[in-house]
Known about the structure:
This protein is an alpha/beta fold. It has helices at residues 43-51, 82-93, 100-106, 122-135, 152-167, and strands at 3-11, 13-14, 17-18, 23-28, 32-36, 58-63, 67-70, 140-144, 171-175, 188-191.
Amino acid sequence: MSRMLETHQASFARNGEAVFAPVDLALDSGQALIVLGPNGCGKTTLLRMLAGILRPWQGQVVRHCQPAFLGHLPAFKGDLSCRENLAFQRRFHGGAGLEENRALARVGLAGLGLRPARTLSAGQKRRLGLAGLLIAPRPLWLLDEPYASLDDSGCELVDRLLSEHLTAGGAVALSAHQRKPVIEVEMIRVELAVTGEAA
């Protein structure tokens, strides 16, 4: 196993007040971590901090590899086609992943390569985001509510992609509110509490 990510008493603040209690975690290859807690406790904030989008207010985040971050909202250009969006991701992030059409087919969007991203449903946009993980592979996935807007088949797709990534030696940290991953790997649990509840 190789270490992918670790934090040491890492926390984030808004207006000088901590969003959540300091977090210590370690994530190795083949491991999965799930961030749990009520709405407003800082799950998205923690993932963005792990990705390097936000800087810790206190403590330290150490990334031993370049992560792939999939946010709750799609990060695509609406007027570009699905295939053009994926091609841009490949050029921007680099990496030798699946070809655009193969990635689209893998996530259930076969035949939609020429469709503008803005015309996709919320669930299809989520699937397009998942295709981005396959275009420019990274050993560490940071996923914010990956099951949001997906139907049952979409949720099962996420489970399969997670399992394949972990079996290949990757690592995953994700947030979840209702549905939890159905995978064979036992997940490390990080429970966040809103600041007023933090001990």
